Amino acid sequence: MKSFPGGIHPQYNKDLTKAKSIVEMPLPKKVRLLLSQHLGPPCSPLVAPGDEVAQGQKIADTEAYVAAPILASVAGEVTAVDAEGIDILTDPSRSAFIGGKKAYSSPAELRQLIREGGIVGLGGATFPTHVKLSPPEGKTVHTLVLNGAECEPYLTTDHRLMLEQGEELVAGAKLLMEACGAEKAIIGIEENKPDAIANLEELCREQGDIRVARVPVRYPQGGERQLIKTLTGKEVPEGGLPLDLGIVVSNVATAAAVHQAINLGLPLIDRVVTVSGGGVAEPKNVRVRLGTPIADLLDFCGGLTTTAVKVVNGGPMMGKAVSDLNSPVTKGTSGILAFTAAEAREFEERDCIRCARCVDACPQILMPLYLALYSRKRKYDLAEEFHLFNCIECGCCSYVCPSRIPIVKYIQTAKDRITRQRRRK
User: Fold this and answer.
1) 356-385, pLDDT tens digit by residue?
2) pLDDT by residue (tens digit) across 120-157?
3) How many Å apart are CA 286 and CA 157, to the nearest integer?
4) Backbone phi, psi, residue 357, to 5°
5) pLDDT in tens, 197-238
6) Which residues pair with 319 in a beta bridge?
7) Backbone angles phi, psi at 85, to 5 degrees
């Protein structure tokens, strides 16, 4: 195997939940389904306050190509609709959902069914899956890569899914291969998950076109460009996509979701979330309905401890701090982490000492120190000359910086401002 450049070895802290089976959270009393749960334009509501909706019913959509519809995660009454989301009061007596295998006659019809199931990448990027599976004219796909690396510290949702839903994962891989035209599939799993590797190797023993590959433990091994480099030795060209190499990358949880949507008729209305950290009473892996308030999810895990000082949506490297515990679980919520003061220490930012540790750690072969400098000074033209938008915001640079400079924060701010300026123009 080839290795991608840079990378780090943070404390992985997965022991809190890696041996804990997925448990299903009871139906929440209410949900709030955000209209933007994918990479692309937000959806527009298809319902109004007072409407009765069924579980799995489409309640928001858009004609934009890079988008996926929003489906009701519970049955009940729509109580509010605004520019950001739709509120539904749950009616437990109407929560039964009758699914059924979806029929299709071509890869294009299969991709459309995946879209109608509301499927997006469940690894965190939330890119609409049907778009990723649609190679542009002149390009063909020969390899599907299933990402089971799960390199973010604390998170164990993919690990448990590979152990408990391995058959569904393999069935979903077959559907993804059919949808994009891939001849073979590789499931890349970090070596720190030997039980998941053994389980999928056994399930794929009779599958001549699907194999399991052990990959080294190294953050951010789960980045699609990094995983492609490790598995194939090829590099995605600058400004290009995996499709340029004839490769499609999908998360293992996404594959399982595709199986459920097509073979069982169950659209994406829930997902598995790791609830962990020293600030939560009972760390768990929880299957939870989309739109559930984070506060309810934490309560299901015993609530916050008295030592909790910070809650993060996602992993510690790329997640975002939660300012309101009433905010909902979305398609992109892979983890809810509650940290103590020791786990979420704040440091004083100091001057850059030009040690180049951030350069050594960068998996994209960038110059993070200059990206941070020019971003902070609002010299965005210079930042773009140093390939600002090639940054994947993995956080390696900030992690190793001895001066505690929040490099990624400066880069994210610069990207956001540049994007806003371009939209206005």
Assistant:
1) 999 999 999 999 999 999 999 999 999 999
2) 999 988 999 999 999 888 899 999 999 999 999 999 99
3) 8
4) -65, -35
5) 999 999 999 888 999 999 999 999 999 999 999 999 999 998
6) none
7) -170, 180
High-pLDDT (> 90) share of the chain, %:
92
Distance, in Å, from the CA atom of 280 to the CA atom of 276, rounded to the nearest integer, reads 6
Name the one residue in this structure whose structure tokens are 């220490």: 345
Structure tokens at 323: 């300012």
Cα(250)–Cα(201) distance, integer angstroms: 18
Hey, what CATH topology would domain 113-263 get?
Rossmann fold (3.40.50)
Cβ atoms of residues 397 and 370 within 8 Å: no
pTM of the model: 0.95
CA distance 36 to 361: 33
What are the structure tokens assigned to 380, written together?
């965005």
Closest CA to 293 of 258, 336, 255: 336
- Helix-helix angle 194-203:157-164, to 10 degrees: 40
Domain ranges of the chain: 113-263, 357-424
> Using CA atoms, how far apart are residues 110 and 118, in angstroms rounded to an integer?
13
- The helix (run of H) or strand (run of E) holding residue 194 is helix 194-203
